[in-house]
Amino acid sequence: MIRLEVNLNTCQSRPRREFIAADPYLLGMGERRFAIIGHRAVNDGTLPLNDLAGAGGRMDVLVRAINTALFLSHGIRDDSHITLHLMGGPGPPRRIWFEGSRLEGVHADERAIAGQIAKVLREPTPPVGRLEEVWTGLWHSGGDISTTIAEWRREEVTLVRLDADAPPLWVEGGSPPDGEDVDTRFGFFLSDDRSFTTEEIVTMDAAMPARSLGEQWIQGHSAIAVVHHLLDTGLPLDLGDRSSGAEPAR
To answer: Pick from 84, 88, 85, 83: which is nearest to 41 by CA?
Structure first.
């Protein structure tokens, strides 16, 4: 939303952007979480804001993912979270969690988002198992995807690894359920501009199915947008074991 802010001393006005939490009745199925791995992303010290793609370790990819995961045209999604996994050193692996339902002080501008990450990187990395809130709705902790998987499984989140070579995420020919109250928590795992490592795939495949958003490998922020569309429209998802005849998630 754009409003005019008037300076009473000069009588001049300038636009001021306000981000308003999205109306939950306009959103679709349940809470959605995204976990993205930054294989080369800087995790300690100084983040070079003028070189996110180079010296920042493709931090630009993660920033675009944050933007798509959290922001609507005129608001913040309060049903969406995203956790960055910064694996590029020079410190130990660090996770940064943007909690959409409580987030304050972050705007839909890539440089501004990167600036908030830079502030977090100046803080010591907390030990694995301890989540520290840097400011409202922005947390950080040590750990990697195995830590996130364990935490989300304890919270009974339905986990999915996104992979273009896997079966489709949605049910072909499926239609949105009528009047059904869905409170499922979904957690989607995706990578930066590099593929998941073999070790990462083994870790994830032991805990979740792999599903595809199409035959083409699309960029991470585009994948997040597709997931939002599927969940907002309430299309049934195929997350069961195909050999077991399990029912699709609705």
So the answer is: 88
pLDDT score for 248: 42
According to the model, what pLDDT value does residue 105 have?
Answer: 81
**CA–CA separation, 35 vs 97, rounded Å?**
9
The Cα–Cα gap between 121 and 119 comes to: 5
Domains and CATH numbers, the chain: 22-233 (3.40.1280.10)
> Contact at 8 Å (CB) between 1 and 17?
yes
> How much is the pTM?
0.81
The three-state secondary structure class of 180 is: coil
Q: How many Cα atoms occupy the beta-carbon half-sphere of 3 within 13 Å? A: 7
CA nearest neighbour of 206 among 142, 149, 128: 149
User: Which whole-number Å values give the CA distances from 43 to 92, 109, 154, 177, in the listed order?
Assistant: 7, 21, 26, 42
CA atoms within 13 A on the CB side of 213: 21
Residues 43 and 89: beta-carbon distance below 8 Å: yes
- The candidate with the shortest Cα–Cα distance to 85, out of 51, 124, 48, 117, is 117
